[in-house]
Amino acid sequence: MKIGIDGRLYRSGVAGIGRYTQELVKNLLEIDKENSYILFLTPADMSECLLSAPNLEKVVAPFPHYSLAEQTKFYRFLKRFDLDLMHFTNFNHPIRYRKPYVVTMHDLIMYFSRGRTKRGKFTRGICRYVIRDAARHAKKIIAVSKYSREDVIKHLGADPEKVAAIYEGVAEQFIKVNTEEAEKVLQKFNIKKPFILYVGRWNEHKNVIGAIGALALLNKEMSNGGVRLVLGGKRDQAFPEIPKTIAKLGLTDKVIITDFLSDEELAALYQTAECFIFPSLYEGFGLPPLEAMRYGLPVVSSNRTSLPEVLGEAAVYVDPLNVSEMADALFKVLTNKKFAESLARLGLRQVEKYSFRKMAEETLAIYRDAINGNNK
Predict the structure, then answer these.
(1) Which helix (H) or strand (E) holds 163?
(2) Residue 103: pLDDT band by 50, 70, 90 thresholds?
(3) Residue 82 backbone class (left: φ over 0; alpha: ψ -120 to 50; beta: rest)
(4) What is the pTM of this model?
(5) How are strands ordered across the β-sheet holding 275-278?
């Protein structure tokens, strides 16, 4: 087969979808020497993609997501390659593309979200149409959890026979930063121990404000000056309520915003944090808490959507809209060493259940089924 893969969200700065695409292509090339792959990359993605294999061709596709060019020029561009199958690694696809394709739906946030501006609402209206089109015309749909699979079937009316749940993975080899280098990272961002770590975007469903509110309550109970909260991720000017809440609660010296982190800097924070908090209201999978578990961090997680399914018994679950409950859980993790250590051990066992290699093997099987017309 000649298989195309949409890598226009390949780069690291795209967070979860970027990591998914990187690991998928890398592992497919390791396990599959029979089929040929064409990876479509934007110029920015091309500069970051160092993959090389006899059965891999990398092609520049300068057509941004959520753009008119994606729907017109990218559609015509793909027709040149006579693909047996195309894999769109996010719901974005040219709606006129009618050759066989597989689509990965990581979650339905863009389907549910109302948008904050007129432009945002218009964009999301278009996204809803594109998502529904993918659900209708894709040969196979990959959902990243059982919860996401049910979401796709329930809200998009997708045929259950063509929707497969394939879990994402956690990197088997993780970056180890020595103590001296870790201290340099803490100094760079003016982070003082002890601190709680959050990694992710600032979108409304991520509920970052909930974590900030929990910190305010927590520090009323903590001695020795309390703890800090590090928000690891890119600042987003579309969410001014986050810095406003920090200021309103008098937490300017307790909440550190790092902005974009390199893999090494993120590893340093995972290695030096006391625990990890993930207060999200909606997740299709939830990779950050699993990455935290890989580093031996105890995790306090929201009890919503896919998170209990993915994290199993290895997290303390809280109602993400109950900041008092969140603060109590953090207090227990931070003050009960035996409990925290037990939670960390459970986390290390939990991450062993997830493998990018297994994800690639199951995805390759989906490719074969899509070509052969097998819906089972």
Answers:
(1) strand 163-165
(2) very high
(3) left
(4) 0.91
(5) 255-259, 228-232, 195-199, 275-278, 299-302, 316-318
In the three-class reduction of DSSP (H, G, I as helix; E, B as strand; rest coil), residue 120 is classed as helix
Can you tell me the distance from the alpha carbon of 27 to that of 344, in angstroms, rounded to the nearest whole number? 28
- Report residue 279 as tokens: 């207060």
Q: How many CB atoms lie within 10 A of CB 120?
A: 13
Helix axes 179-188, 263-272, angle to 10 degrees: 100
- Cα→Cα distances 161→215, 365, 367, Å: 45, 15, 15
Q: Which of the four CATH numbers 1.10.10.10, 3.40.50.2000, 3.10.310.30, 2.20.25.90 does domain 2-169+355-372 have? A: 3.40.50.2000
HSE (side-chain half, CA atoms, 13 Å) at 252:
4
Could you tell me if 158 and 298 are in contact, meaning their C-beta atoms sit under 8 angstroms apart?
no
pLDDT tens-digit series, residues 168-208: 999 877 789 999 999 999 999 999 999 999 999 888 899 99
For residue 298, whether the previous peptide bond is cis, meaning omega lies within 30 degrees of 0, is no
Question: Token match 């306090």: residue?
Answer: 300
CATH 3.40.50.2000 domain position(s) in the chain: 2-169+355-372, 179-351
- Could you tell me which residues come within 8 angstroms of residue 8 by beta carbon, excluding any fewer than 6 positions away? 40, 41, 42, 45, 61, 63, 64, 65
Strands of 274-373 (E only): list them.
275-278, 299-302, 316-318
